[in-house]
């Protein structure tokens, strides 16, 4: 067993950078843990922290609709395809155009969101009092700066992935978390808005790290932007279904936040803390492994190498299954102990620890499924298919919302992670079957 695990972990997957990404992601989550410890002990499960967490919903939704997943899903396969066929100049024209287009589009989209934020706040947190909603609107409006910054940074990150350069890509989230931590002492001076200032500082550092790494690469920027370039238009076309599908996770937690705001004070906080712990193995293994193998899968697809594609996919899935399975077992049995160890104390009382631990134990069931979702989705994207994941996950969103709403009277806050785990696992099984059938036709 140990020898097989060693082979999976130190085989071909990690030769392409998964080890580096896993280590850097671990560093990011270590700093994220420090962030959560400070938040828990300084602010506790307070309404102010409820508001702060809720303020991220709309800006993060905007970011994820266009940039975080849609851009990656469309850009990397197209850019890698050109690069694999030695069309470097065309690849650089596409990259330069996207570097200009991404922040411009985000800025345009942010304008109506800024204007209608009071209406959106009523949807995000219907259970908040008037003064809490006023603070939510102000914080969310200021946080709209971060998606514009991330639009540039994530474009650079996708170029780094395509070149299989992972240092700047992996270091950037560490500095983002550092910026958020800086916001805690700023809150002592400027009040709740100090936390927002920390987020913006972190986003700027995120961008600076990736810009420094891309400067060392061989890319040559080719301005001005070429809006009519056929490959750029292809990227926009591929982004459309992903733009519809990417925010499903954010919409899910948008719905969860809305439902939690109607329950006891601190419900959003404990839900957020439980989700943060659960996302650690998802990022360490699911996102890191999938990101590291994405460029390789795209190259295999571009060259019509079905055998190589299946080998990369199979070996990654083996390692992913082992690591996420062990993680799920650990958090199910020891989740409350972990929460107590790191967050217990200060204003985060024992009742808050127990509530968070219970949610984490249920969220643990979603760790393997969510991790495999990243791998399977990127496999479809490598094949330039961004529609199939959408057709499966969009109905899943509706089912999660219905099931959570139905179970809340019985399970209270626990209904949210339970619904997420059950439906997500079903989606992964269905997508896997579709992917295997699709691969037989290559």
Describe the protein's architecture and organization.
The protein is an all-alpha fold and 442 residues long. The protein folds into 2 domains: 219 residues, no CATH class; 195 residues, no CATH class. It contains 19 helices and no strands. The longest helix is centred in the C-terminal third of the chain and has 38 residues. The protein is globular. The two termini are 33 Å apart. The N terminus is likely disordered.
Strand content: under 5%
Overall pLDDT metric: 85
Which oligomeric form is depicted?
single chain
Count of folded domains: 2
Instruction: Provide a count of the helices.
Output: 19
Rg from C-alpha positions? 21 Å
Question: Could you tell me the number of beta strands?
Answer: 0
Q: Distance between termini?
A: 33 Å
Overall 3D form: globular
Q: Which H/E pattern describes the elements?
A: HHHHHHHHHHHHHHHHHHH
Q: Please mark out the parts with pLDDT under 50 across 5 or more consecutive residues, or reply none.
A: 1-14
Describe the sheet with the most strands: none
Alpha-beta classification = mainly alpha
Q: Helix coverage percent of residues?
A: over 70%
Write the layout of secondary structure elements.
Elements: H1 2-10, H2 12-15, H3 18-43, H4 47-55, H5 57-84, H6 88-115, H7 117-124, H8 130-143, H9 145-162, H10 167-190, H11 193-214, H12 230-245, H13 248-260, H14 267-302, H15 306-343, H16 350-363, H17 366-382, H18 388-411, H19 415-439
Helix pairs in contact: 3-10, 3-14, 4-8, 4-14, 5-6, 5-9, 5-12, 5-13, 5-14, 6-9, 7-8, 9-11, 10-11, 12-18, 13-18, 14-15, 14-16, 14-17, 15-16, 15-17, 16-19, 17-19, 18-19
């Amino acid at each position: 067993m140990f020898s097989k695990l060693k082979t999976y972990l130190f085989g071909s997957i990690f030769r392409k950078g998964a080890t580096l990404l896993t280590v850097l992601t671990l560093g990011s989550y270590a700093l994220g843990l420090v962030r959560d410890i400070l938040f828990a002990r300084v602010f506790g499960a307070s309404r102010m922290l409820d508001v702060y967490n809720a303020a991220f919903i709309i800006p993060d939704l905007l970011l994820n609709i266009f940039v975080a997943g849609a851009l990656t899903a469309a850009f990397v396969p197209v850019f890698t395809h050109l690069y694999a066929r030695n069309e470097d100049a065309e690849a650089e024209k596409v990259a330069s155009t996207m570097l200009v287009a991404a922040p411009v589009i985000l800025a345009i989209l942010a304008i109506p969101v800024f204007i209608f934020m009071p209406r959106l706040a009523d949807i995000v947190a219907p259970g908040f009092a008037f003064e809490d909603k006023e603070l939510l609107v102000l914080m969310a409006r200021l946080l709209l700066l971060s998606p514009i910054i991330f639009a540039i940074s994530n474009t650079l990150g996708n170029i780094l992935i395509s070149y299989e350069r992972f240092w700047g890509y992996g270091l950037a989230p560490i500095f983002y978390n550092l910026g958020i931590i800086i916001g805690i002492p700023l809150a002592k001076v400027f009040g709740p808005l100090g936390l927002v200032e920390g987020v913006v500082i972190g986003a700027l550092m995120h961008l600076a790290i990736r810009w420094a790494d891309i400067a060392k690469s061989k890319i040559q920027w080719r301005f001005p932007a070429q809006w009519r370039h056929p490959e750029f238009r292809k990227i926009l076309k591929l982004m459309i279904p992903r733009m519809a599908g990417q925010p499903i996770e954010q919409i899910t937690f948008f719905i969860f936040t809305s439902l939690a705001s109607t329950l006891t004070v601190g419900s959003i906080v404990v839900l957020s803390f439980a989700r943060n712990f659960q996302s650690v193995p998802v990022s360490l293994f699911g996102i890191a492994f999938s990101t590291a193998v994405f460029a390789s899968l795209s190259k295999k697809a571009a060259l019509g190498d079905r055998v190589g594609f299946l080998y990369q996919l199979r070996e990654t899935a083996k390692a992913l299954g082992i690591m996420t399975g062990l993680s799920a077992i650990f958090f199910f049995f020891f989740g409350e102990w972990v929460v107590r160890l790191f967050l217990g104390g200060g204003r985060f009382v024992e009742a808050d620890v127990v509530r968070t631990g219970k949610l984490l134990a249920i969220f643990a069931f979603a760790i393997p499924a969510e991790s495999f979702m990243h791998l399977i989705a990127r496999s479809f994207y490598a094949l330039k298919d961004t529609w199939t994941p959408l057709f499966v996950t969009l109905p899943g969103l509706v089912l999660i919302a219905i099931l959570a709403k139905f179970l809340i009277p019985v399970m209270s806050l626990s209904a949210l992670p339970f619904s997420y785990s059950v439906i997500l696992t079903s989606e992964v099984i269905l997508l896997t079957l579709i992917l295997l059938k699709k691969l037989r036709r290559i």
